[in-house]
Design a protein that fits this description.
heterodimer; A: alpha/beta; Glutaredoxin; 6 helices; 40% helix; B: alpha+beta; 4 domains; six-stranded antiparallel sheet; 19 helices; 10 strands; 63% helix; disordered C terminus
């Protein structure tokens, strides 16, 4: 073989490997999220409904819950709001909100206007808790199991498909006691 | 309005890049003089449009326009103005835009500098650059548009990722990208030469300053990234063999080989097809780095938000550009014959070794970086490759490279005899060995087998690099900037070797049990433990220790390492405290509570760690000096070339 064709002969299998790599990328993304399989970060933050009360991660232990990072300034959050309300209606597991770097008054108005899908909303003005959770940009949603381990993470807006295909199958079917 | 204007400018830039590519490549091919002459205006127009787009995005950042999705996601009204500007390239979309801007700027520079090149050739170079730019613009507009609006607009932005709010990391991407993009110029020169089917020594002289400048920027960019990782991530390491670090390091290694192989092509008309291949490889690896970082194929702490759709686009682009260039290479490179021969031991053969070793090093890094991917593709399970693989394999090619470097500097072209330089080489080697033994057994009383070897090689390189400039200076002879720059860069390499050897060998690690008020001495410093106090954070509590560091009684620093306990899972984390003193890096961490106020304390002293980055800076300065040599200046090129080859056969 002509030695000048050699570089091309090396390049072709490389492209094949990279192409396979892309196909696998979505699954890898899930494993790659550093938090998946690890304990959810702990926090103690003021409650949006009543700033004198605290929302603590300790209080959430012992049941499945969705941890949803949102803000009124975030377009993707508006887009996923209907899905969150659908999840609330399904009654399978509670949604805990983290209102990220937001204005409290605006946030309360948003929930009043659009409906409140959250069991409780923790307020993270400084963005400190979001850093602990490794949040890149809102919205992001984490599925946490009763042992407090993060099971699954969704980056970007939740959709009906993600809810029924990715989240629901991971949660054992038993209605949670409403609160 | 501004975002729409920017968006529109970007679309115009795409069209102009398309015209630039079309006229630049097909004008010379079909001998259409008017097509060829349309290329420089298209270059200028494209630059103006891209600069307008970047200006519009910057204005949106500075003016806190949170109706722009990208601004809302990466900025905040409380963010200082400096970071609001650097936030522009803080995430995927904007960093691509920066890439395109720098490419457009380089293209304008090439277009101005190309005034002295044959018109057809210059048009082809600009055409290939236009093709690269077209691909990136299309990618941005199709998958990563930074000008998309947000409806309803955000009240405030999500802020720039806090770890990016740092001066070193704000300037890191522009410098690094300038290096990457610079290799696009070498790539375009290579493609143009293959399209012409002709490559002469003059071609190498045109290409050299661009390549060396790009190399210098890349050196700076990598060093800045390493510096940031060192003090911000706080693990006391300066290089982690992380996929993204490797992605910038591979083009650097191949680029270094290219700089040297171009010297041979320039001076002796040899290594032609090899030089072409290296030029293609250096840019291909830069683009591969872009692919790896942005496609989600490899996961790294530095990764951008992954998106497979983007990955497919970049892969298609890679196949077109690299595949196209390699096909051109397979077709045209056999035409490029060089007839001159050389002896073993001549500078040509030493530079050949240099090239082989550097490319081998790049290949080992490449293999290690992609091994997890291959193992995954073949379903062999998840594989992790780290320092235990990279360190020894990398050393295997670096040790002979360093050992041959002083010989290379003092060898002559064509002739293999080193006899007239034997005395100089032996003298400098002897001095270097004395230095190394002094370092290994005098100053520090311990070390490893490779310590004296590494130190001796580093010192030998520095001494051998100094001989020629000093000799010329003593005899009042002129010293060309090319030779001066080469010597400076090689001194930088020598310093880097010494620094790396010292850090690897003489890092002092001590675990001691200390009661409050007690102290210990290590590496000439005294560490006094003042005890611990409770601390509380937003989601953790724990203890913070205070350790007073003195040297001969004089205060050096007060270090405050922490031990945090996160509330729910009772997970413990250790926060180290770092201080730089006299080139030594002092690192202190709290270990276990031994009861009765006693704690185990870990102390690390890393000597000369700052010299690593200083050495990189010296290398980059050497590159900058060398590429400013008069030989490469446009005017009077012919006379200069004649004069330079008359002045010194020694010049690189």
């Amino acid at each position: 073989m002509n030695r000048f064709v050699l570089p091309m002969a090396v390049f072709v299998p490389l492209v094949v490997i990279l192409a396979i790599g892309i196909r696998h990328a979505p699954e890898k993304d899930i494993i790659a999220s550093p938090l998946v399989g690890k304990p959810a970060p702990s926090f103690s933050l003021p409650d949006l409904a009543d700033a004198s009360r605290a929302v603590r991660s300790t209080d959430l232990k012992g049941r499945w819950y969705l941890f949803n990072v949102w803000g009124t300034w975030c377009g993707g959050c508006r887009a996923e709001h209907d899905t969150l309300l659908e999840i609330q209606r399904a009654g399978v597991l509670p949604v805990v909100g983290l209102d990220w770097k937001d204005d409290d008054t605006e946030a309360r108005a948003w929930l009043q206007q659009l409906g409140n899908p959250y069991e409780v909303v923790a307020v993270d003005h400084a963005g400190r808790a979001a850093i602990d959770w490794g949040v890149y940009g809102a919205p992001e949603t984490f599925l946490v199991n009763p042992q407090g381990i993060v099971v699954y993470k969704v980056v970007g807006s939740l959709t009906h498909d993600v809810w029924t295909r990715e989240i629901l199958p991971r949660v054992p079917r038993q209605p949670f006691p409403g609160s | 309005m501004l975002p729409e204007l920017g968006h529109f400018a970007l679309i115009l830039a795409l069209l102009l890049a398309g015209l630039q590519a079309f006229f630049g490549i097909f004008g010379p091919m079909f001998g259409r003089e008017r097509w060829t002459s349309a290329v420089p205006p298209a270059v200028a127009g494209q630059f103006v449009m891209v600069a307008t787009a970047v200006g519009c995005l910057a204005a949106s950042f500075i003016g806190d326009d949170f109706s722009v999705r990208y601004v809302a996601a990466n900025s905040n009204s409380a963010l200082p103005i400096f970071y609001r500007v650097s936030a522009l390239w803080g995430a995927h979309e904007g960093s691509l835009l920066l890439w395109i801007l720098l490419l457009a700027a380089w293209t304008v520079a090439v277009s101005i500098g190309a005034a002295r090149l044959p018109r057809r050739f210059a048009a082809r170079v600009l055409g290939v650059l236009g093709l690269v730019s077209f691909g990136f613009l299309l990618f941005t507009l199709a998958t990563s548009n930074p000008f998309l609006r947000l409806d309803p607009p955000a009240g405030d932005g999500a802020d720039l990722n806090p770890i990016l709010q740092d001066p070193a990391l704000a300037v890191h991407p522009p410098i690094l990208y300038t290096g990457y993009v610079g290799f696009a110029v070498a790539f375009a020169f290579a493609c143009a030469a293959m399209l012409e089917g002709r490559l002469d020594q003059e071609w190498a002289r045109w290409t050299r300053p661009w390549t060396t400048t790009a190399w210098a920027f890349l050196t700076c960019g990598i060093a800045l990234g390493s510096f940031w990782a060192y003090y911000e991530l706080g693990w006391g390491g300066f290089w982690f063999w992380d996929p993204v670090e490797n992605a910038s390091f591979m083009p650097w290694l191949v680029g270094t080989a290219l700089v040297h192989s171009l010297a041979v092509t320039d001076k002796r008309g040899l290594f032609k097809s090899w030089t072409l291949l290296l030029a293609i490889l250096a840019f291909s690896l830069s683009m591969l780095g872009t692919f790896l970082v942005r496609s989600g194929v490899l996961v790294s702490v530095h990764s951008f938000a992954a998106d497979p759709a983007r990955g497919i686009f970049i892969l298609a682009f890679l196949v077109l550009m690299i595949g196209g260039a390699l096909s051109l290479y397979a077709w045209r490179a056999p035409l490029l014959k060089s007839s001159a021969g050389f002896e073993l031991g001549a500078r040509e053969s030493l530079l050949l070794f240099n090239n082989v070793l550097l490319v081998t090093a790049a290949a080992t890094v490449f293999a290690g970086t992609l091994a997890p991917l291959v193992s995954d593709a073949l379903k062999l399970g998840t594989l992790s490759v780290g320092a235990p693989y990279f360190n020894p394999t990398f050393m295997l090619s670096m040790l002979p490279l360093m050992a041959l470097l002083p010989l290379g500097i003092h060898s002559s072209w064509k002739r293999g005899r080193l006899s007239d330089k034997q005395r100089t080489l032996l003298m400098t080697l002897a001095l270097a060995v004395v230095f190394a033994l002094g370092l290994a057994f005098g100053i520090y009383s311990h070390g490893q087998v490779l310590t004296p070897v590494g130190a001796a090689l580093g010192a030998w390189i520095i001494l051998a690099s100094l001989v020629d400039p000093l000799d010329r200076w003593r005899r009042g002879l002129s010293l060309s900037r090319a030779v001066l720059g080469m010597s400076i860069a090689h001194i930088g390499i020598g310093l880097a070797v010494i620094a790396l050897t010292t850090v690897q060998s003489f890092t002092l690690e001590r675990d001691v049990a200390l009661a409050p008020g007690a102290g210990t001495a290590a590496g000439g410093y005294e560490f006094r433990f003042e005890g611990v106090a409770p601390i509380e954070g937003p989601n953790y509590d724990g203890v913070g220790g205070t350790i007073v560091v003195t040297r001969g009684g004089a205060p050096v620093a007060v270090l405050k390492p922490q031990k945090r306990q996160y509330w729910v899972q009772h997970q413990l984390t250790t926060e180290t405290a770092i201080h730089m003193s006299r080139g030594n890096n002092l690192l202190v961490a709290l270990g276990d509570d031994l009861g009765a106020g006693r704690w185990s304390v870990r102390i690390q002293i890393r000597p000369l760690v700052s010299l690593i980055w200083l050495a990189a800076l010296i290398m980059a300065i050497g590159g900058a000096v060398a590429s400013s040599d008069r030989r490469y200046r446009p005017a009077r090129a012919v006379q200069e070339a004649a004069a330079a080859s008359a002045v010194g056969e020694q010049a690189t």
